[in-house]
Structure formats: structure tokens, C-alpha cells
Design goal:
A: two-stranded parallel ribbon; 4 helices; 10% helix; 33% strand; B: 26 strands; globular; binds zinc ion
Chain lengths: 288, 572
């Protein structure tokens, strides 16, 4: 086992890029390798040792035997764990864009908040975020219709817009609230949200499953109520409780399943229109 | 600057030089009879020397490309490389950014590329993009096949007015020739329809595709343009479309080729682009099969026809064409993201990503039909290399296509070991074809024939006085068997030992060593000024009322052009 600890010396207002500093590449590195390595910053490169005091303990035969511990503020360090296939990275602080993007194995844990595109196009491994994350968590690359295909993302805080966009496999669990359009364009996989969702979960989803334990603000018109289900089983896992099940998005002939907590969303069952603030606002406006 | 390319093995089909060892002299930007003693000698012994490549049909500049790049950022992240002292950063695979397009053509030994679809309304933008593509000269052909004025002239049989309109529009758009895409079909798309077959009518305009194409061909020959009409016929990509293709070509038979000087270089009166997409038999994808033999047979018996193939290369690419209804059909099949672009009174384009997989029946059928066309058309002067870049594959795959053409064993290997789906031999005759191209024929389909078809008087051959556009490939054909070494063939044509453009060395050993601004080539018709003024006068009220731009802003003025080469077509 080899532990490589990065103790931050100084930060940079222009982001550092860490996609080369992953266990796959550095499991054989010793101090002299780090001394020689220049890290990309904007359109240039600078010695990584200007920014971090790097301590190496132990030996590794393979990337899987590497644990990287990043101490300090990584709010301007992008691509942490990007494309890694094995090993572990622990960030004791915030992380910038694309943390855990395209990872295929191993584990990344961030004890702070993470910027957008966390876990983008993951195909395996586990990304755990103890704080909040922003837009496009577990999403695809912009324009790409093949998103995250495998692995697991756990967000202990809140997730931003379009979480799990184009999800093609794997699972995302948000313990906090989730912003609009979770699971947009998804075709496979599971998104579980413990908190509330303001609007439009599953927009244009073709398949896959979304489970929401909190209150849902607005649903898209393309979701058709299927009735109340108890303890539904989704991809081998039972979700205890009562849920209203929807099928959608029928705008795209979608066959996705959306389960929302029946108790917290009971108003939705019959007369959701009356409860909908925005709809009411428009109606009141029209009646004037 | 003077150079001697010494001791190369030269393939120059226009001058009927087939593998002779000889020296080529360069003085400044031209090929010369001789040079002074100061000339720099470049030893190219045991290497192949050819005129620089000429691409007969590709989509490299214009609004479709921009829409494609905006629409497919995921394509741009492929093929990324950092800038160097010589190059700007590269990006993109099927729709590379403008500088990248120039670099990649240059590395393959190309010097000239026809941009195959320029709508007049977006001509300015097309020229702006051409100006940012280095190293290759570009002749954009202007779209006329769904133009409202042309449809009206065709219906009323006013060929002279149509000719005058074309002359005016070539000047307005700074275009090179007459391009026709799904005649009447893209207009029908404006009504949510398409035309089916050659004798179907565009809604409202009450004119058939046949009337329009024949009228445009007549006008083209009346003007005596250097290039013939360049057509993408109706029913692209539909099983059972080959009769439409043959019908279209047949209808041009009686039209006499112009006897004017500019039109002398070419032999054809019609160039049918991406024939592969137009050579399908059957009635649906269930029973689709190859119609390549019928199309090839027609071409073999009719020397007024030329074509290029639009070879499928088994890549994830982007389809983009001014055949908007076809793109919508494709979208219905694939379900991938789709974009549509309406060009007012001129045309409409569509874009969707496309994955041609050797594991799927349809993609494989298309691949095999393309190769059949290459192998079944007897005269290599009548069939050119193309992938209809990026529609059937990106242009950087030309070397791979060359390797398939030069190696029957490689083709059989792909069929026999299951590398490609079984439709390759069950639905086509590819497995029965053992023809192999030689280097002379490759030189014909990739430079000599495209240059002749476009009527270029200054390139596509190593004739003294021609542009010094030359490619050198590092292989000795006298002790090399391309049939047994397809990978090597692909490698040598991918990275030229030298690419020389206008007498400047741009590529050495496959690497870019210099860049230069491109030229744009356009056709200036003389002697029709009075007729042009008349038709413009007549169309102006309509133009003013319905076009979204002013006439003054519609025209591409001279200062918009990057190093123009004006081809003058003198009066009657
Ligand atoms: Zn084309």
C-alpha cells in the first residue's frame, strides 16, 4: 500500500488540472518524479511542488494499491480522479469541475462541496461527495447522448440541475434535494433522491428509474399516473414505502418509471392543478 | 524558389505517365520544363510522385458545418492536439475545425477540395470559413436545386433566363458551379413533404424534379461552365432508389456539352455525387440489396456521366446535407439528435450523428455497395474517391479506402472472418469481385479525374505551367505488393513524404512544416451582363419582399474572398 499525501502550499486562481495525477499514472512515482512533474494550469504548466508538499509512504505494485490524500482547498483543482481505473483518492476539502469524471474504477471521496460535472461519464467505481454538488452530476459530456454507464455516485448534500442527464447505467443517490430535470434523457440506471425536487424530474427519459422520497414541485405532462405501489422493487432493490408510480416521458414514447413518495405528494393524486402555484398564477392572470 | 524532385516514380494519369522514373522541376509556384543550376535538389528516388490530391466532393465550409460543430461538441473533443509552432490546436473528428481540416488534407497530400454545397444566402459565411482553412484551395459549388427562381424558370421553360440567373448568382455567391441536391425535395420539405421519384412535383411550384434538372443542365451548358451540373438525385438512401438515379442520368443524355473553351477540359455533362447512397435495390430495408451493378452498367455505357462514390468507412460520423427530408427520415430510424436548417427561398439542410457499424446489416450493405461501384465502373476517369465527407465517413479515411481498393484479399478477409455483417456478400456481389486498383488508377480517382471533372486548367497533373501541387509517398511500387500489405498502403497515403502546394513544401515525412493561406476558386461568366441585369430586375421586387437580407448585404463582395482565383468564362 502506498499513501501519497498532498499538503497544499498555495492556491491558484486559474485552475490546476489533475487528470494526469491519478493512481494509474503515479503508482510508481517517487519524490524525484513529482519534482520533475509540471501540472497543467490554463494554457501552461508549472511544477506541482510549487503548490503541494508531497509525502510518499509505502510501495505500490499497481494503481489499486495507491491512496491519494489531498489536504487543503481544491476548489480550483479540476479533474480530480478523472479517468482513474483503480485506487483511492480522498479530498479533505472542496473539489472543482469534473471530479471523478470518466472514472472506471476505484473510489473518490470528497469531504466538501464539488463543482459541476462530478462523475461525468463514469463507467465504474464509486464517487462519494459529503457536501453539495452543482449541475450535471453523473451526466454526459455536453452534446453526447451516452452518459454515465456504470458505477455509483452518492451525494450527501444537494445536487444541481440535470443530475444524471443521459444516464445510461449505474446509480446516483442524492441524500439532499435535487434541482430541475434530474434524469433528463436517461435511458437506463437508477436515480434515488431523498430530499425534495422542485421540478421536472425525468424530462424526456426513455427508460430507467427515478425514486423520489421528498416532495415534487412540478411534474412534466409526459408522465402518466399508474397508481399507488407499495415497496416497489427496482433493479433488485426494494424501496420500502408507498409511492405514486408514473410512466414516461410519453412525449418520447418513454417507458421510464418514476416513483414519488405517496404521502408527501398526496395532493398530486387527484387535483394537482389546484395545488400548483405556477399554474394558479397563470390562471389568475388570465382571469383578470 | 526552384526545386528538382529527383528520380521519383511518377504517376500522372493526365499525361499518361505510369510509374516512370523521372525528375519534376518546380519554379516558384509552377511546374517547369527546366530549372537553373541554383535549384534545390530533393531526392525522391524509390518514392511515388503524384499531382497533389483533388477532392471532388466534400463538405468542409459553410453553415451546415457550423451548425454541426455547435450541435456536436462531443465530436470536437475527439482528435484534439495542442498547438505547435506551426499549427494551431487541432480538434474534431468528423467535423474538424477549419484549420484542422486544412492540416489533415495536407498531410494526406491533397491540394484542392470542392466544397459541395453553398447556399447563396449563406455564401458569405462559407467564404469566411474557407479563409480560415489553410493549405488547400477550395471551389465552392452553389446550390440551385431548390431555388424558387430556378423552379419558376424551369416550369416556364425559360432556359436563357435561368442561365443568366446562374451567371449572376455565381458572381453574387462567388461560386464555382451548379450543385443540385434532392431537386424539389428540399423545397417540398418546407411543406413537410418530400418528392418521391424523378417525376414528382414540388408543392405550389408545379414543377417536377426532371424539368428542373434538365433545365439546369441546359443552362449550365449554355453558359459553358468549367464544371457540369453536380447532382445529388432524389430518393437518397431509400431502398429501391437506383431507378431514380438511372432515370436522372438518362434525362441528361440528349443535352449537348458546351463547345466553349472553359468547358473543354471535362468530358461529362453530369456528375452524380455519392452514388453509393443512390444505388439500392429492393423495396424496404427488409429486402434491400445492391443496385450497384445496374448503376455501374449505366455509367459504363454512357461516357457523359461521371460520379463519386461516398464510401462508407465504418465510423461514428455526422451526416449533413441540403437534403433535409432525408435527414428527418434518418432521424426517425436512429432516434439520435436531429437539427434542421431552413435557408429561406433556396434550400434546407439537416444534420444528425450517424454510426456506421460493420456489425449492422444496413451499414455493411452501404459499405459493400460503395466498393462495388469502385470495382464495377470500368473507367477510373468516371468514378472518384469520396466519402461525401463527413456523411459516409471523414476524409481522413481515404487511405483506408485505397487499401481496400488495392487489396482483394483484404476485402475477402473482412467478409470471411465476420469483420463485417453477412449482408456484405448475401445482398451484394462484392465477394465475386477480385479487381484491384493499381497506383495509376488510384492517382486517377484521387487527383486526375476529379481535376478534369471540375474542369481545372491548372491542377491535377504535373504538366509544366500547372500549379506546383505535388504529393510524394514513401513507397517503392516496384518492390511492394499493395495487395498483400493493406495496412502499409493506408499508412503511406495517410502521411505524405512531401506535400508541395504552389511550390511550397508544407508537409515533410507526414508532419506539417509550414502553412499557407488557401485560395478560393470561383467562376466569372462574361458577356451575359445585359441578361443578368434583366433577370435581377425582374426578381428584385420578390427579393426585397421575401428575403430576410437586403440585396446589398446578400452579395459576397471581393474583399470577402481569400486569395481568389477567378475562372473567366468568356461570352457566347
Ligand atoms: Zn455531399
Amino acid at each position: 500500500m502506498k499513501t501519497i499525501t498532498f499538503n497544499q502550499i498555495k492556491t491558484s486562481s486559474i485552475a490546476l488540472e489533475f487528470d494526469e495525477v491519478i493512481p494509474d499514472n503515479i503508482y510508481t512515482w517517487d519524490n524525484s518524479d513529482f519534482d520533475a512533474y509540471q501540472v497543467p494550469i490554463g494554457n501552461s504548466r508549472f511544477p506541482i511542488t510549487d503548490f503541494f508538499d508531497i509525502v510518499i509512504e509505502g510501495e505500490a505494485e499497481s494503481p489499486a494499491e495507491v491512496k491519494m490524500v489531498l489536504n487543503g482547498d481544491y476548489g480550483r483543482v479540476k479533474y480530480i480522479g478523472c479517468k482513474m481505473s483503480a485506487g483511492e483518492i480522498i479530498v479533505n476539502g472542496n473539489a472543482d469541475l469534473h471530479a471523478g469524471a470518466e472514472m472506471s474504477g476505484g473510489k473518490v471521496t470528497v469531504h466538501g462541496n464539488v463543482e459541476a460535472h462530478a462523475g461525468r461519464e463514469m463507467s465504474g467505481g464509486k464517487l462519494e461527495i459529503m457536501g453539495n454538488t452543482k449541475e450535471f452530476c453523473g451526466a454526459s459530456y455536453i452534446g453526447e447522448w451516452r452518459g454515465m454507464t456504470g458505477g455509483e455516485i452518492i451525494v450527501h448534500g444537494n445536487a444541481g440541475k440535470q443530475c444524471g442527464e443521459c444516464l445510461t447505467g449505474g446509480s446516483i443517490h442524492v441524500l439532499g434535494d435535487c434541482d430541475i430535470l434530474a434524469g433528463i434523457h436517461m435511458t437506463k440506471g437508477v436515480i434515488e433522491i431523498d430530499g425534495n425536487v422542485n421540478r421536472w424530474p425525468g424530462g424526456q427519459m426513455k427508460n430507467g428509474n427515478i425514486i423520489i422520497h421528498g416532495k415534487v414541485g412540478r411534474l412534466l405532462e409526459g408522465f402518466v399516473e399508474q397508481g399507488i405501489v407499495t415497496d416497489p422493487e427496482v433493479q433488485g432493490k426494494v424501496y420500502p414505502g408507498k409511492y405514486i408510480e408514473y410512466k414516461g416521458d410519453i412525449a418520447l414514447n418513454g417507458k421510464g418509471a418514476l416513483y414519488i413518495d405517496a404521502e408527501k405528494n398526496r395532493d398530486r393524486l387527484s387535483t394537482w392543478i389546484e395545488e400548483d402555484d405556477e399554474y394558479n398564477a397563470i390562471r389568475v392572470y388570465r382571469e383578470q | 524558389m526552384e526545386y528538382i524532385l529527383k528520380n521519383g516514380i511518377v504517376y500522372d494519369p493526365q499525361n499518361e505517365i505510369n510509374g516512370e522514373t523521372m525528375d519534376i522541376f518546380i519554379k516558384d509556384d509552377q511546374i517547369a520544363e527546366s530549372v537553373s543550376d541554383d535549384a534545390k535538389v530533393i531526392d525522391v528516388s524509390n518514392k511515388i510522385v503524384m499531382p497533389a490530391g483533388v477532392d471532388v466532393h466534400a463538405h468542409v465550409a459553410g453553415p451546415k458545418l457550423v451548425l454541426g460543430r455547435l450541435y456536436r461538441p462531443e465530436d470536437s473533443r475527439m482528435g484534439v492536439s495542442q498547438k505547435t509552432k506551426i499549427e494551431r490546436a487541432e480538434a474534431g473528428f468528423s467535423i474538424p475545425c477549419c484549420p484542422t481540416t486544412g492540416y489533415r488534407y495536407s498531410r494526406m497530400g491533397y491540394g484542392t477540395v470542392c466544397e459541395a454545397a453553398m447556399p447563396p444566402l449563406e455564401a458569405k459565411h462559407t467564404h469566411e470559413e474557407i479563409a480560415t482553412i489553410p493549405n488547400i484551395d477550395i471551389n465552392p459549388v452553389t446550390l440551385f436545386g431548390n431555388n424558387w427562381f430556378c423552379m419558376e424558370y424551369a416550369r416556364e421553360g425559360r432556359i436563357e433566363e435561368m442561365a443568366a440567373y446562374i451567371a449572376a448568382m455565381l458572381r453574387v455567391s462567388k461560386g464555382y458551379g451548379v450543385k443540385i441536391v434532392n431537386p424539389c425535395g428540399s423545397e417540398a420539405w418546407g411543406w413537410g413533404q418530400n418528392v418521391h421519384g424523378y417525376d414528382d412535383k414540388a408543392p405550389y411550384f408545379d414543377v417536377t424534379s426532371r424539368q428542373l434538372v434538365v433545365a439546369l443542365a441546359k443552362a449550365n451548358e449554355m453558359l459553358g461552365l468549367p464544371h457540369s451540373i453536380h447532382i445529388h438525385p432524389n430518393d437518397l438512401g431509400h431502398p429501391g432508389n437506383y431507378p431514380t438515379t438511372v432515370e436522372t442520368l438518362k434525362s441528361i443524355k440528349e443535352i449537348k456539352k458546351s463547345t466553349k473553351k472553359a468547358a473543354k477540359i471535362r468530358d461529362q455533362t453530369v456528375h452524380n455525387t455519392h452514388l453509393q447512397f443512390h444505388a439500392y435495390d429492393g423495396t424496404s430495408w427488409k429486402d434491400a440489396s445492391s443496385g450497384a451493378d445496374k448503376v455501374a452498367d449505366f455509367i459504363n455505357h454512357n461516357d457523359y456521366v461521371t460520379g463519386d462514390v461516398g464510401q462508407v468507412t465504418f465510423d461514428e460520423t455526422t451526416t449533413m446535407t441540403a437534403d433535409a427530408p432525408m435527414e428527418y427520415d434518418l432521424f426517425q430510424i436512429s432516434g439520435l439528435k436531429w437539427a434542421n436548417k431552413d435557408i429561406e427561398c433556396e434550400t434546407a439542410a439537416g444534420i444528425i450523428p450517424c454510426i456506421y457499424s460493420p456489425k449492422t446489416p444496413v451499414g455493411t450493405l452501404q459499405w459493400a455497395i460503395g466498393l462495388e461501384l469502385f470495382l464495377l465502373v470500368d473507367n477510373p476517369w468516371q468514378i472518384c474517391m469520396s466519402t461525401d465527407h463527413p456523411n459516409a465517413g471523414p476524409f481522413i479515411r481515404y487511405p483506408r479506402i485505397i487499401s481496400w481498393l488495392m487489396s482483394a484479399p483484404r476485402r475477402m478477409e473482412m467478409i470471411e472472418n465476420g469483420e463485417v455483417h453477412k449482408w456484405s456478400h448475401k445482398r451484394t456481389g462484392l465477394a465475386g469481385l477480385d479487381r484491384e486498383y493499381d497506383f495509376y488508377e488510384i492517382a486517377t480517382i484521387t487527383r486526375a479525374a476529379p481535376a478534369k471533372i471540375h474542369g481545372f486548367p491548372d491542377r491535377g497533373a504535373l504538366t509544366p505551367g500547372y500549379k506546383a501541387d505535388i504529393a510524394v509517398y514513401d513507397v517503392n511500387p516496384n518492390d511492394f505488393d499493395p495487395s498483400r500489405n493493406p495496412e502499409m498502403v493506408e499508412r503511406i497515403f495517410t502521411s505524405a513524404a512531401y506535400t508541395i502546394k504552389d511550390g511550397q513544401i508544407l508537409v515533410k515525412d507526414g508532419d506539417l512544416v509550414a502553412t499557407k493561406p488557401s485560395h478560393v476558386i470561383w467562376t466569372d461568366v462574361k458577356g451575359w451582363e445585359r441578361e443578368e441585369a434583366q433577370v435581377l430586375n425582374e426578381m428584385m421586387p420578390f427579393f426585397t419582399q421575401y428575403y430576410s437580407v437586403k440585396w446589398e448585404n446578400y452579395q459576397v463582395h471581393d474583399h470577402f474572398l481569400s486569395n481568389p482565383i477567378k475562372v473567366e468564362v468568356p461570352a457566347k
